[in-house]
């Protein structure tokens, strides 16, 4: 058993998928096998543990990026028998919520891309895949639904290569497909495993000779992919000593290749039947990075904007990034944090440079599937939840008082749709406005403005479904029945674009650039001094002379 430090035993991962590929089912099975859920509920039957919020359950889609902590001891491979902490960030699959995907991609270190093996790559998987490329996220692929009629392993692998321009490297070959799917060949060890029908437990079985030729061809392909990233494998390969290549060498090469994003190990299974999930968990630990495998996170000092880095080290000054706010009826606002360096303790005073506030760290906890675990401190690499941080918004950095840093802020796409909203009764108007302020603080892709001409509240967001959900949440969480107008394409888009361009110019040419990087909303400024902008850092005014072309 290898000796590893605490941080080397962390895996912060996302599960990304096209809607309906089985992400929720897989997540639930993972939580089952990692021992954190006692009884598994059927997906869409209102008992999915990852989907916290009411309308997620009703709609059967996953909107929030809740982080759940689980533990896994690999059954095979270099880390066999060592417990690893796997933090699962629930990345949303619906295209309207790409904003949420962006946010969780920012804080995860690796991802499992789930595909429906009967469909291969679907349009939406392409979107999410390219987002993950942009964020440099190492991935492994899981071809789910191998039990479904029409499941086709080779077609799915081919579509990953063709449509995603990736280098998929199968590490397994399914035994049977559709209703005959019964197990896998482990191509590293050239051993066959059968999945128990009831429990999904894998057990070794006789090698299916009918699959030998196909398995050997795929193993050769695996060795070739490993030879591209590992000198030892390469040497043995060119010398024709294939039989001398060890399992350990292949494991090491696959890990290195995945971390360098040169290859994508491919596994398969049927999450619904619990088949292949344990082997996937082994692969998560074996191939996806620990926080310590990644480059230091970059940020800037708040005043002078000097670049600084923070590495995943408990001894460095603390810095943590807020990637999600949620509201919980029982405990109020829950702030989800990724700790990048140092140690955060309850009672500690930290700085939130963007809001120019000091905060006292209240309660800290890990969210498990079925319980919340309160802790006194969290460390570099951890993903946790914090309560009682009132002045904090998504995208903020919390850092040591003596070592202020702002981690690069998230950029959010412009809203694409807008609608007018009003409470059904006058008495509820204030309640609605308060609710909207809260919801907008949680979700930076939601904008709430007052139309200067009509005085109406205008909501803008990423799509109709996004805004529908906001209206739903007003009703379920704030008890406000709201009336909405016809959705319109977000107004003043061209003006906003123009301001953004000019403002960027202002920044580059040394204008009042201390404010913002993204202009999110514009309108006439008070006293005609320029244009008001509201962004994710400050509210401010760009003096008129800096924006000459707009009126
Ligand atoms: P999500 O939208 O990606 O979260 O997908 P879900 O987990 O909600 O699954 C979508 C549908 O596929 C549900 O009806 C699941 O029961 C079904 N499903 C999930 N995994 C499997 C599987 O391994 N085999 C089969 N046949 N169906 C599955």
TrEMBL record:
Which organism's genome codes for this protein? Hyalangium rubrum
Give the protein family. Answer: Belongs to the TRAFAC class translation factor GTPase superfamily. Classic translation factor GTPase family. EF-G/EF-2 subfamily.
Known function:
Catalyzes the GTP-dependent ribosomal translocation step during translation elongation. During this step, the ribosome changes from the pre-translocational (PRE) to the post-translocational (POST) state as the newly formed A-site-bound peptidyl-tRNA and P-site-bound deacylated tRNA move to the P and E sites, respectively. Catalyzes the coordinated movement of the two tRNA molecules, the mRNA and conformational changes in the ribosome.
Q: What is this protein called?
A: Elongation factor G
Q: Name one GO molecular function term.
A: translation elongation factor activity
Q: Give the domain of life.
A: Bacteria
User: Which residues of this UniProt protein bind GTP?
Assistant: 17-24, 90-94, 144-147
Among its keywords, does the record have GTP-binding? yes
Give residue ranges for domain Tr-type G: 8-292
Full-protein residues shown here are 1 to 551 of 700
Q: Which UniProt keywords apply?
A: Cytoplasm, Elongation factor, GTP-binding, Nucleotide-binding, Protein biosynthesis
Cellular localisation:
Cytoplasm
- Presence of the UniProt keyword Cytoplasm in the record: yes
| Chief place of localization | cytoplasm
